[in-house]
Amino acid sequence: MQPFYHHLVQQTEKFIQQFSQLNGYYLSKSLEIDDQLPTYLSEIEQYFTSIRATKAQLAVASLSSYLETAKRGFNPVTLEKVRTGRRENYWISIFSILQKLQALLIENLEDNQQKLRVSNELLQQLILSALQEGLISEEQFLRASTLDGASSLWDSLNQHVSLRNFARKIKATIHPKDIHLLISDVVVSMI
User: Fold this and answer.
1) Which of 36, 83, 100, 174 is the most buried (most CB within 10 A)?
2) Model confidence over 58-80: pLDDT tens digits?
3) Nearest Cα to 129, choosing from 69, 186, 74, 82?
4) Sign (positive/negative) of CA torsion 30, 36, 38, 40?
5) How many of the other CB atoms lie within 10 Å of CB of 87?
């Protein structure tokens, strides 16, 4: 089963909002970041583990180790014991972690949005083709602006032999709930 990309986008956007709050703690040099950042990293790592995004999960685990190394008074890059300026070393480490985390979250968001955009284009082509060939009625098309209507339209599109391979390609790419949401969006945009 394919991941539900609308949900993944929503979750990543939630993490980006939380990131903004953490960045605010960093900018104000609030000690609140000492408690919040490890918790945040743990939540993101669990999230990536739950969606089987191994590469991203390992990257976040690495950032957690980086933070822990700095907390223990070592320079995370050289692994040398920091004798003076431990707190400054810690803040530099937090800055580095925040930069890498921001890049990871944005990359994840853009990847998931791209998958939805590509699927949206495929569905647009499929629906237009079905309309032009008379495989679906104008009434079916208009009803698809709701989720129930979109589900019914998708079932109807899968019935037609000439569209079946195209529909299989879409099914192999995204979750059925994504398909229904995208069909609804496509229909609304075409009305």
Assistant:
1) 174
2) 999 999 999 999 999 888 888 88
3) 186
4) negative
5) 11
